TrEMBL record:
<feature type="domain" description="KAP NTPase">
    <location>
        <begin position="16"/>
        <end position="382"/>
    </location>
</feature>
<dbReference type="InterPro" id="IPR049673">
    <property type="entry name" value="QatA"/>
</dbReference>
<dbReference type="InterPro" id="IPR027417">
    <property type="entry name" value="P-loop_NTPase"/>
</dbReference>
<feature type="region of interest" description="Disordered">
    <location>
        <begin position="442"/>
        <end position="474"/>
    </location>
</feature>
<dbReference type="InterPro" id="IPR011646">
    <property type="entry name" value="KAP_P-loop"/>
</dbReference>
<feature type="compositionally biased region" description="Polar residues">
    <location>
        <begin position="443"/>
        <end position="461"/>
    </location>
</feature>
<feature type="compositionally biased region" description="Basic and acidic residues">
    <location>
        <begin position="462"/>
        <end position="474"/>
    </location>
</feature>
<dbReference type="InterPro" id="IPR052754">
    <property type="entry name" value="NTPase_KAP_P-loop"/>
</dbReference>
<dbReference type="Pfam" id="PF07693">
    <property type="entry name" value="KAP_NTPase"/>
</dbReference>
<protein>
    <submittedName>
        <fullName>Phage T7 exclusion protein</fullName>
    </submittedName>
</protein>
Length: 670
């Protein structure tokens, strides 16, 4: 069960109000040109609103709606001309009667051709001061095309070149063509207006989507194309884009703006002059988020085309009309609308209640982030079921952990590392903070109740004002701290976001978190050596440290059992061999020494380790330091044999010499 992440005409966000407002605005003045902006962050629902607008205009007589995606023009050398041609071409395709209006069609395309040639000679920037291209600029265009004759590989035939050259030179004929760019733009407006009349189009509505995903140059070219139509009657543009991204594109496109102008102010003014009517999609609040999450999950269970689900959406919209007075979709509403099928929605309601508040804050009210969070949640549960431990993964627990993973990654790593090292997969600091915030909530609730009672009694004149330090005499206690808290717990207690997360139900204090960490391995694997070692992992890390630190751990090593000592030995051996560096004594050898001294039964394991060393690449460190460590008869015999083998090896003279000296010293001391 996955949630689709495409634009949709099914409104779960109550954004239909924005779409309906825009449609009404377009209906009221169809003859007037207008540009409307639908602004919102990435994933806020801009594309879905465009879909709703298109649907709302489908049945309007004389209204033609064309939709363009900004990415469509990303690869074009001139996105501006491509969009203009695209609009005209789409208009002709949508209105077959234009096949008879040959003159109007030819006139429009002639104006577009002129714009293309103007672009080749320096663009519409000619009009920056005078609006008239200089003779030198026009001659540059001519010279450019004439130069193609010298390289016939650039065009297929000489005739093509001469034809193109003739088209450019025709610009210089004052009796047939104007040379003033503003006049040509005005001529384009008139030609396009005639084309709309010939097509019986009372209003042309062009929807521009994904402009904020384009490269800066493409975004600006598209906006410049829109400006060309701004004064064309009966033409409306609706641009869906993130304002911040467009402002960034403007600043990148005009990098040399003077400091006195202010690049940021110029970018904002540029967009405001182009967009006459801006609409900004509001972020979802807590109530809207809970309704959205509930509808998404129920829709995934029942299907978007289910009759009961459609009725539930209608009921949700009623709730969202006054979200400040609503707590979202409750069980009573769901039961009333879905009837016998309400049981399928209970898990969705529970999950929405649990994660809605923090998801609203963590996702900053962004619908796409919310949807992707839910998709990851459902996918991970499905993965657990496919691997055979789905019964050990409860959605509410997984959702709470994923809230930390997605929005407070440091907190999640701290919890995961502690749980992976715990023999029962728990995090003791997490249990502590959950207990403390629960106590804090209880104290605050009690204080509020006492405050309310105090006010009532004071009003009756029958009670003295209670003593205390708080307002109205009520003493509010701060959250009590344990007498000995860890550094991690202190960090958590100082963070209000962490405390807010800890208040989310269910409690994770007594939950084995290892199955949940396993399904989050796509982010990081917490099940390496630390998982196998459990609570011994910190001790292993200390035994990999400097010799002084290792020596200080000897008393701790005496407290562990033999199986635990064997696990520590294997972890150290694995780390040493895995580092594959033996010219100097590797970290961990000192830890092996202390470990074997406190647990002599591991002497055989130590000899196995020494015998497996790559003797050709070892320094002299393996031959010394074993006095008082290797002392059993069999172990001593194995060490003497190994030293003899090293002393006879031909390829490592340093180890050979050191082994020979050590062997003589050992024999002389007996």
């Amino acid at each position: 069960m996955l949630l689709t992440d495409n634009e949709t005409k099914v409104d779960l966000l109550n954004n239909e109000a924005i779409a309906a407002t825009i449609v009404t605005l377009l209906r009221d003045r169809p003859d007037r040109p207008v540009t409307i902006g639908v602004h919102g962050d990435w994933g806020a629902g801009k594309s879905s609103i465009l879909e709703m607008i298109e649907t709302g205009l489908e049945e309007q007589d004389g209204v033609l709606c064309l939709k363009f995606n900004g990415w469509r023009f990303q690869g074009f050398e001139d996105a501006k001309i491509a969009l203009i041609e695209g609009i005209v071409t789409a208009l002709i395709e949508k209105r077959p009667m234009l096949n008879k209006a040959v003159g109007a069609v030819k006139d429009v395309f002639k104006r577009i051709d002129w714009l293309k040639l103007a672009k080749k000679g320096g663009g519409l920037a000619w009009t920056a001061f005078t609006g008239i291209p200089t003779p030198e600029q026009i001659q540059a265009v001519v010279a450019t095309v004439e130069g193609l004759l010298a390289d016939p590989m650039k065009l297929a035939t000489k005739e093509n070149v001469e034809s193109a050259l003739g088209g450019v030179k025709s610009l210089l004929k004052p009796e047939t063509e104007t040379k003033n760019v503003p006049e040509e733009v005005h001529a384009f407006h008139e030609a396009f207006d005639k084309l709309l009349k010939a097509a019986s189009v009372k209003q042309l509505v062009v929807l521009i989507d994904d402009l904020d995903r384009c490269l800066p140059d493409t975004a600006i070219e598209t906006l410049e194309a829109i400006r060309l139509f701004v004064f064309t009657e009966r033409t409306a543009f609706i641009v869906a884009a993130d304002e911040a991204m467009i402002e960034y594109a403007v600043r990148k496109h005009f990098p040399d703006l003077p400091d006195t102008t202010g690049p940021r102010d110029y970018a904002r003014n540029y967009l405001e002059k182009l967009i006459q009517v801006p609409f900004r999609i509001p972020a979802l609040g807590e109530t809207e988020t809970r309704v959205y999450v509930t509808l998404l999950l129920i829709g995934a269970e029942l299907g978007e085309n289910d009759e009961g689900y459609e009725k539930l959406i209608i009921a949700a919209r009623e709730k969202l009309k006054r979200p400040w007075e609503s707590t979202g979709l409750d069980a009573a509403t769901v039961n009333e609308v879905l009837g016998a099928r309400a049981a399928q929605a209970h898990n969705a309601l529970t999950l929405s209640d649990q994660i809605g508040p923090i998801l609203a804050t963590g996702a900053k009210g962004n619908p796409r982030l919310i949807k992707r969070f839910l998709n990851t949640l459902l996918l991970r549960q499905s993965t657990a079921e496919a691997r055979g431990f789905g019964s050990e993964v409860k959605l509410p627990v997984l959702a709470k952990l994923m809230l930390a993973e997605r929005f407070q990654s440091r907190l999640f790593d701290q919890i995961a590392s502690a749980a992976a090292a715990h023999p029962k997969g728990r995090c003791e600091d997490l249990a502590a903070i959950e207990t403390m915030v629960e106590d804090e909530q209880l104290r605050n609730a009690t204080a509020s109740a006492e405050k309310s009672t105090s006010k009532k009694q004071s009003g009756d004149g029958n009670s003295k004002k209670p003593s205390g330090d708080g307002k109205d005499g009520v003493k509010f206690e701060v959250m009590a701290k344990p007498t000995a808290e860890s550094a991690v717990l202190s960090e958590w207690l100082a963070s209000e976001p962490v405390r807010a997360w800890a208040r989310v139900r269910p409690s994770l204090a007594d939950v084995d978190l290892r199955p949940y960490l396993f399904v989050t391995k796509d982010r990081k694997d917490y099940f390496g050596a630390a998982s196998a070692l459990g609570h011994l992992a910190p001790l292993v890390e200390q035994l990999l440290g400097p010799k002084l630190m290792v020596q200080a751990r000897e008393s701790d090593l005496r407290q562990i059992t033999l199986p635990e000592a064997a696990r520590i030995f294997e972890a150290l051996r694995s780390r040493i061999m895995g580092d594959d560096s033996f010219d100097q004594e590797p970290p961990g050898v000192a830890g092996l020494t202390v470990l074997v001294r406190t647990h002599p039964v591991l002497q055989s394991n130590l000899l196995d380790f020494l015998e497996a060393l790559p003797r050709e690449r070892c320094g002299v460190w393996p031959v010394k330091g074993w006095e008082g460590i290797i002392k059993d008869g069999d172990a001593i015999a194995r060490l003497d044999k190994l030293l003899a083998e090293w002393s006879a090896m031909p390829k490592n003279s340093f180890l050979k010499s050191a082994a020979a000296n050590a062997l003589r010293a050992r024999r002389g001391g007996r």
